[in-house]
Structures are given as structure tokens and as C-alpha cells.
Amino acid sequence: MIHPDIQGVTLIGVPTDVGAGSIGARMGPSALRVAGIAQAIRNFGLDVRDSGDLHGPDNPWEPAVDGFRHLPEVVRWNELLHDAVFAELDSGRLPIVLGGDHCLGIGSISAVARHCRAAGRKLRVLWLDAHADFNTAALTPTGNVHGMPVACLCGHGPEALTHIGGHVPALSPADIRQIGIRSVDEGEKRFVHEAGIEVFDMRYIDEMGMRHTMEQALLDLDEHTHLHVSLDVDFLDPDIAPGVGTTVRGGPNYREAQLCMEMIADTGRLASLDVVELNPALDVRNQTAQLAVDLIESLFGKSTLMRR
């Protein structure tokens, strides 16, 4: 279920892989459309508008400069996305960002945070990902900005990215819950602990189960909370979701992922969503996009039985 104040849903395609280490995520929005994302959401009786794709700079595919790859291009895409997401939120709609790589979380979530500050709402961000994405230029082994969005949102990064949205930091680490994490660089681990981000990694999920994990991640939500879900498709185990550039074995299986989405839906607080890192060039017959749409249906309230 979605936040009761939402007037409709807007799809925003962001066809870029400037922040990634492999080419192909630029085709993600098309794959999600082919998999039927718009109709799947319309089936819940919601007004769904597809705003088409944003148009930003091409991927120059160059090496890192001063610890960042493609920084000017990453900045421009995120500025465009920030403005698009903020406009939809301002008109009472739920934006769904169709990525594109996860560097786009900077533009998307900085807009959500700006909207929440203006509306006097609390913000909870669920970061569903195999990676913590808390790297900096000093820590990153690659310079790929899709490994840095959480750090940038928390104020650690180049000014051109941390200042998108006009407030630094855009987020407090206390606003974030990371779920499904299982691949973190050594220096990044220390930085995540220093920042105090609440992380439910795969060992926690193995030991405690997805139900308990989600109960903890969703604790203290109330009617004044805006819930944002940032779904990196590599959150899922690659056995069921091969179409990503950064696969890490040992992620949530189909039922665990469904339970995660259903429990988010049960809160009735979902108000914005990113779906990122889908790489159709690495997929098998669009199965990862189809699975993503299946999970989004559960986020919007699909369940096995009608619940009273």
C-alpha cells in the first residue's frame, strides 16, 4: 500500500550508466517498461503517468580523475533527476525512478529529503542493496560513483553532489536502514560504522530471518513518515536476478524478497521508489526486469490472500 496522501504515480526513466563499472544499465528503463511496470501498477486502480526518459550527457567511458569517474556527467544526471522527482512530489504524486545505475540515488533522495523538510515530515530510507555504497574518493578502488551515493547524501563527497537539493547533508545516517548488504570494501566498513548507519546484512537476515529484519527496519514509522525505497536489483540473489553488473552471491531468495516488499506495503507509508542497476545486456530473456515488476506489485499491495 502507498501513502494515503498520494494522488497518483509517475514513472521517470533515467537511461544512464555514467556511475557504473559496466555499460548496460542505460537500457534498464526500457526493460522495465517491456516487463509491464505501468500496467502492473494501474491494476491497483492508481493513476499512472509515464513521463518518458530524462535526457542527459552520454557516458564518455573514461578513467577516474581525482578519485571520480565521469563526475560532470554524474552531477548533471542527478541535477535533472532531483528536479524531476521534486516536481512530482510537490504535485502530490509518487515518483518511481527507472534506472540507470545507483549513483542516481543522490538526485532522487536529495529531492525526497528536500520535500520532507518543506512538508515537515520525517524520512525513512530503505536501501536494499548488496553494497553499502558508502565509498569516497579516498576509499574507492574504482572511482565509480554508483559506489558512493549514500556517502554523498550524508555529506561526504564532492560539493557538486553533496549540495544537490540545497541542504548539506541531505540525510542523517539515522534516516537510513540498509538491508541485504554482503559486499563492502575494507575502508568503507570502518566508515559505515563511524557514521552509525543501521545495517541489516545478509548474516543478520540468515540468523534472524527476513520478518524480524523488516520489523526492525520499519520500527517507529508513523503517519508523518515518508518512506522511500531504493531498490538496487543486485539486492537479490543472482540465481533469480542475473541482469546486474555487480552480482554478489548469497542474496535474498524469491520468498524473502517478496516478504520484504509485502511488509513494506503493510505500513501504508510508501511515497517514493528507485529501481536501479538493472542491466538487460546481462539478463536472460528479461527475467530480472519481470521479477522487479513482480516485486513492485507486492510493494503496492499484491498478496497471496486477501487480508482482512
From TrEMBL:
One BP annotation, GO: urea cycle
Hydrolase listed as a keyword: yes
Record NCBIfam families: rocF_arginase
GO molecular function, one term: arginase activity
Chain positions recorded as Mn(2+) 1 binding sites: H102, D129, H131, D133
Protein name: Arginase
Record organism: Aquabacterium olei
Family: Belongs to the arginase family.
Cofactor note: Binds 2 manganese ions per subunit.
